[in-house]
Amino acid sequence: MSKPAWACALGAILLWALFATLVRHAGTAPPLLLTGVALCCGSLASVHRWREWRVPAPIFGFGVASLFLYHACLVAAFQLAPIAEANLLNYLWPMLIVVLAACGPAGGGLLPRQLAGCAIAFAGCAVVIAPSSSGLSSAHLGGFALALLAALCWAVYSVAPGYMGAYSSWATGGFCLGAGLLALGAHSLFEAPYDPSAREWAGMAAIGIGPLGLSFVMWDRAMRVGNASTIGSLSYLTPVLSTLALAVTGAVESSAWWRLVPALLLVMGGVRLTR
Questions:
Q1: What are the Cα distances from residue 84, in Å, to 33, 118, 146, 201, 265?
Q2: pLDDT tens across 134-167, in order?
Q3: Residue boundaries of the structural domains of the chain
Q4: How many CB atoms lie within 10 A of CB 65?
Q5: Which of 4, 82, 95, 151 is the most exposed place for a label (fewest CB within 10 A)?
């Protein structure tokens, strides 16, 4: 895989790893409000290339719908099911990326080592997330289904650009703005009015510029020029690095530290296997 693809994929992953830490600075802002404001702010990361937001209507609609559905499903899943279990199911998206890319028209078929590499990397993700889980319960099937739907939405969004007409990765800024406005509309319909403090506005803006803005530009570029199998396995670094960031800032218990080393080794082993 080329150096630009590695750089873009790792850049997006590092920004996503900061998401949970930055959410702490968004206070108690309702989820849809946070998502809407952050996505709208995220569009500012590429506003200097706004002319490249002009894409055919079907592509624009697909991008906006994908970003909105992914975040809406994930927010709803976290509300209807325990977060640890829902988040673990959500992290099936890297494996789905590998499967969809390999089985698509431009793919060469799914290789056993690719699937094995993703499974090993997913195990690394589970090492970090699963200890907080209380087990899957039939009482939360709706939330689990939404978490799986979120994973599928992100996987399809990630793989689809390879089958669409050429457009600039900076067009994701337009997708963010459209999805953000939809999220704000959903907030006005389904959540109680909320007046954020200055600190909360700053936190939501920071989330937008990084984890929900520039990261999407880099991710789009990585998926276009990189190897989907390698990037999929590499993506399992996100929960590992996210836990590390939370541990450094004192947001998680000290027992989380010991899980980071085996998790990191499993993820890197999975990446190595898919290369």
A1: 22, 20, 14, 27, 21
A2: 555 666 788 889 989 999 999 999 998 877 878 9
A3: 3-274
A4: 16
A5: 4
